[in-house]
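User: Can you recover a sequence for this backbone? Please restate the input before giving your answer.

Assistant: Of course. Working from this structure:
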């Protein structure tokens, strides 16, 4: 049974000191060897594992024939962001998990091949760029993967699409959350520029709800609205000391570094504290990105505190491996109970307890329980809390009749229509926590919007 062609990575001891991309990408020879491994199954199970149902054997076959442009055409039938998905999708739980080769040995590296197809064609012009316009205006709120995907699909059908974004730049979490060493901004720019060339209008620095309301958009002649505002509200542990200085929430920390370029202060205006002994609380992608970013800002030690075991960590396997290679320490089955400050109000230690796993909850995950009298102290000068993100209530609270659930997620029907006629929603503001699930919802919503506008 053939083995997967591993993607070359930069040396961990060098890369941990800079923000350049960790994975190098396949060479043409490596791509051909990997593409050859695909069995071209008659009933391709991999497609079933992909939330946007990319015709995976088809694009791999084009690569094998050394036709990356044709491969891209197949990818573009289902995704506007292949270079992004090839880099950050949790393929091990999706398409690659279903690969028949993986049942007995190693699955095909579908994500790496997708990345190759996108990167190899990054500088080529899109051949079918002209689409006849139908004059119907659609507003998209939020320029993350859900909004860009929905907008991209509508553009390709001739709609006039305007995306409103509250920040001064586009991409949502892809730009302000996921760091450069995993997803270079220039890769994201290539994909967003293709959408701009298709005619996507991007209106930045506009917080819908406050700058203008959804009703204002309808009054301006937009015939439907897609709400894709993500979930950017941090969760706090609710324990003593959490308001001490140098305790950041992951979103603030990552936004400062990724979007505001605080790593280059004072050339850029926004500062960020550079911790020496940093403690990260959490076990998801956000925790891993915060830990590896703190390391790159010069930390001597970075310790990740997580209340379950590594098996339960939601972060992608590749990110966990990379983090460990770079020297991030994992303190699993550990939970903070108190943050301790110095006399000036700066954090100087975290009091933790050891945990053990008990019986599974309804979702099947084993519930962590405190081990009695196991308290101990970790000294630190900076803590980053990465405990999950919730929907931001601004837009729903300022939109009449827009219904949300108890956690603030916007409620939608099977067509992604909200309780307000003509207003659709998708992505993390509805449910989910991956780029590809946000994109999947964006695609479905685009179809529903077209049906709604044509009464089909
Ligand atoms: P977002 O990407 O959050 O975009 C929403 C956009 O809406 C933002 O730009 C925001 O500024 C804007 N907005 C908000 N409110 C308003 C308003 N009122 N008016 C106008 N604009 C507004 N997923 C993966 O699959 N793989 C990963 O490796 C991965 N890593 C991650 C790392 C981090 C640090 C984080 C935070 C998340 C990660 N995720 C990852 C999850 C993934 O990024 C999200 O699921 C996805 O970005 C959600 O897409 P979205 O379009 O719904 O929202």
């Amino acid at each position: 049974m053939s083995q997967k062609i591993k993607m070359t990575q930069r040396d961990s001891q060098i890369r941990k000191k800079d923000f350049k991309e960790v994975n190098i990408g396949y060479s043409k020879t490596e791509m051909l060897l990997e593409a050859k491994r695909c069995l071209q199954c008659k009933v391709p199970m991999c497609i079933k594992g992909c939330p946007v149902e990319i015709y995976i054997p088809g694009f791999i076959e084009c690569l094998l024939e050394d036709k990356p442009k044709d491969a891209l055409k197949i990818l573009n039938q289902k995704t506007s962001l292949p270079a992004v998905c090839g880099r950050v999708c949790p393929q091990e739980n999706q398409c690659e998990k279903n690969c028949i080769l993986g049942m007995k040995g190693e699955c095909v590296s579908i994500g790496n091949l997708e990345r190759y197809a996108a990167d190899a064609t990054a500088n080529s012009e899109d051949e079918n760029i002209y689409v006849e316009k139908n004059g119907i205006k659609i507003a998209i709120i939020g320029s993350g993967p859900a909004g860009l995907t929905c907008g991209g699909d509508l553009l390709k059908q001739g709609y006039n699409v305007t995306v409103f974004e509250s920040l001064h730049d586009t991409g949502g979490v892809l730009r302000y959350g996921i760091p450069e060493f995993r997803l270079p901004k220039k890769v994201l720019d290539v994909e967003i520029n293709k959408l701009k060339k298709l005619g996507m209008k991007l209106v930045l620095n506009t917080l819908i709800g406050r700058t203008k309301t959804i009703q204002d958009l309808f009054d301006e002649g937009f015939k439907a609205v897609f709400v894709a505002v993500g979930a950017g509200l941090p969760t706090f542990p609710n324990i003593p000391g959490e308001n001490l200085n140098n305790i950041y929430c992951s979103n603030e920390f990552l936004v400062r570094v990724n979007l505001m370029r605080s790593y280059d202060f004072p050339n850029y205006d926004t500062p960020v504290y550079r911790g020496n002994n940093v403690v990260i609380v959490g076990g998801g992608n956000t925790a891993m990105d915060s830990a590896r970013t703190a390391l790159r800002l010069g930390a001597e030690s970075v310790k990740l505190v997580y209340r379950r075991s590594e098996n339960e960590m939601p972060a992608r396997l590749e990110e966990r491996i990379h983090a460990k290679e770079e020297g991030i320490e994992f303190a699993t089955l550990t939970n903070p109970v108190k943050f301790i400050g110095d006399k000036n109000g700066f954090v100087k230690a975290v009091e933790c307890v050891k945990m053990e796993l008990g019986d599974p909850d309804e979702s099947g995950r084993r519930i962590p329980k405190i081990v009695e009298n196991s308290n101990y102290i970790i000294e630190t000068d900076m803590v980053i809390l990465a405990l999950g993100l919730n929907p931001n209530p601004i837009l729903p609270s300022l939109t009449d009749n827009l219904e949300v659930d108890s956690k603030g997620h916007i409620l939608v029907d099977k067509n992604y229509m909200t309780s307000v006629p003509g207003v659709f929603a998708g992505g993390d503001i509805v449910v989910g926590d991956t780029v590809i699930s946000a994109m999947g919802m964006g695609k479905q919503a685009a179809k529903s919007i077209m049906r709604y506008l044509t009464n089909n």
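That completes the design. The mean pLDDT is 95.
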